[in-house]
Amino acid sequence: MSDSLHEPWLRGIAFNPAAPADVLIRLVDSAAGEAGLLMCAGRDLPDAVIDAVLNHPDRGIRRALARNRHIDPARLAPLATDPSGIVRGWLAGGTPAHLRPRWVRPLPDNILVTLLTARDGGEDGTLTANEIVGELISSQQIPLSFHRSMAGHEHPQLRERATWEWQSLTAAQREALLDDPAPAVRKAAQERSWVLDPERVEARLPSYGSRGRPFVFGRCALSPALVEQCFADGTVHPLTWNPHIPADAVARLARHPVAAIRELAAARPDLGPDLVAELREDPDENVRMRAHLHPFPRTWAEYWAIDGVIGHGPDCTCPITEPTGEPSPDWFAACAASEEPVLRRVAARFPGLPAELAATLAQDDDEEVRILLACHHPLAPPHLLLNVFVTRPAHRPHLLTLPAFPRTGRAHLIGHPDPDVRALAAADPTLPDPPLEDPDESVRRAAAANPSLTPEALEALLPDSRTAEGAAANPSLPVPPHARTPRPLPERRRRLAVGRTTPS
Question: Quick check: pTM over 0.85?
Answer without folding.
Answer: yes
